[in-house]
Amino acid sequence: MITLDWKDRLVQDSIDYFERKLPGGDYDFDIIYNAYPGRTDNKIPRDVIVLVANTLATKMFKNHNSYLPFCDYIWKHKGINGKIAFSCIISKFLRKDQQFYLDYTKKYLYKTNDLTEINMLLDKIFYPLFKKQPLNYIEIIINWMRDDHEKINQQLIKTVFKIAKNDADFLNKFINRLEHRWMGASPEFVKICGFFLKQLSKHDYGTYLGIYKNYKTSREPIFVEILTYGLVKYDDMVFEMYENWSKSGNARLKKSAVSGLKFLNKRK
Predict the structure, then answer these.
(1) In the chain, where are the structural domains located?
(2) What is the pLDDT of residues 103-145, one digit of tens each?
(3) Is the model's pTM score more than 0.90?
(4) Is 36 exposed, middle or buried (0-12, 13-18, 19+ CB in 10 A)?
(5) Between the CA of residue 156 and those of 163, 219, 260, what are the distances in Å?
(6) How open is the CA angle 159-165-168, to the nearest 5 degrees?
(7) How far is CA 210 from the centre of its chain?
(8) What is the pLDDT, as a whole number, of residue 39?
(9) How large is the average pLDDT for residues 179-195?
(10) Potential cystine with 188: which of 88, 111, 147, 242 (Cβ 3.0-4.6 Å)?
């Protein structure tokens, strides 16, 4: 916890930095907190960075676009503290121009393969926005699930289930919209949907089994491929489905069914 004396000093130093240093292009905001003594493993506590970032964001808010070079700089050059500050500042700027800052931050999301950075952007910027009106963001989340970004896809799906903890209607509508993308899914998207099903089984096994039941009479190979990637354990109904599919004359469908049967038999 930051003492009141240090909180007052950090706020005042942040304002001083904003008024005297930042206008001249001095983006080394470390000067604000370098003297802070309460370190852990020689690192400045996150609470300090958040306080500084929120103070700066409040001062920047009116002319937010003017400070994008600063935001770019601290994300790219100021390490983990810069990324924490970036996330705090942009989460505030979203209130000013939501679409612009969604697009702006999404560029950073898809430039990284670092799981820490992906989670920071999703948890600190996107999740707080999505959870306020989740039904408005279903299509955005699904559209962001790109074939070539496995880490991002998995973290987006985990974000979906964080939202779904408090909103069952959101989850049902998300499932419905995701299933609309199954037909013609690429091999990579098949895996994404399979990962979603596995996560769903942990969240709501009844809903998970209900999806399999809905495809019981299907003979569409792509659907069976997705369901096969989503298998998690043995179930009599699912086993019967795969036995029927394994007798199909369609080579592609049969291949997935045989693979699914092998999995189910091992867990019988």
Answers:
(1) 182-268
(2) 999 999 999 999 999 999 999 999 999 999 999 999 999 999 8
(3) no
(4) middle
(5) 11, 30, 26
(6) 105
(7) 26
(8) 84
(9) 94
(10) 147
